[in-house]
Structures are given as structure tokens and as C-alpha cells.
Automatic annotation (TrEMBL):
InterPro entries: PRC-brl_dom, PRC_barrel-like_sf, Spore_YlmC/YmxH
NCBIfam families (alphabetical): spore_YlmC_YmxH
Lineage per the UniProt record: Bacteria, Bacillati, Bacillota, Bacilli, Bacillales
Identification of the protein by name: PRC-barrel domain-containing protein
Pfam family, one: PRC
Superkingdom of origin organism: Bacteria
Length: 86
């Protein structure tokens, strides 16, 4: 079994480009099933100056590729095959 605090210690890396997205700040849980539906990541670095709000990235559970000992690999920013056909 894994705790939320275990998730927060892991780096989250995008398998599309190999870049670190940030660290886990929150999770969304499906209240009907009790399963995790998505991970919420706060990107490092502020885009709007010193007092700016950090951007959040929401990764759906289905876009998690692998949860390893030190890292969570996710797919983020890829176009789906349906979008590519258009």
C-alpha cells in the first residue's frame, strides 16, 4: 500500500519530452469509487512575477505510465490519436 506522502516525495516526469513537471501537491478522488482520478502538480517557477500564482497541471490517472521508486512517469501534452486525425 502507498500513502499520499509517498507520492509527494517523487519527481513527476513527462515521458513525451523527459522534462520534470514538478511535485505532487494534491490528488482528486472519485467519491463514488474511492479511486484516485487525477494528480495535481504545481509547476516550479512563477510565470507572473514575484507574487504570481504558480500554475497547476492536472494529470488524469489514465495518463500515468509508471510509478517507480523515485519518479512517476506521465504522459502530458501529447495529442490523442483522435485529435491527430482532424
Amino acid at each position: 500500500m502507498m500513502r499520499i506522502s509517498d507520492f509527494q516525495l517523487k519527481d513527476i516526469v513527462n515521458v513525451t519530452n523527459g522534462k520534470k513537471l514538478g511535485r505532487l501537491t494534491d490528488i482528486e478522488i472519485n467519491s463514488a469509487t474511492g479511486a484516485i482520478s487525477s494528480l495535481i502538480i504545481e509547476q516550479s517557477g512563477k510565470k507572473f512575477g514575484l507574487f504570481g500564482k504558480e500554475e497547476e497541471i492536472i494529470i488524469l490517472w489514465m495518463n500515468i505510465v509508471k510509478i517507480g521508486g523515485d519518479v512517476i512517469l506521465v504522459r502530458y501534452g501529447e495529442k490523442s490519436s483522435e485529435e491527430e486525425e482532424r
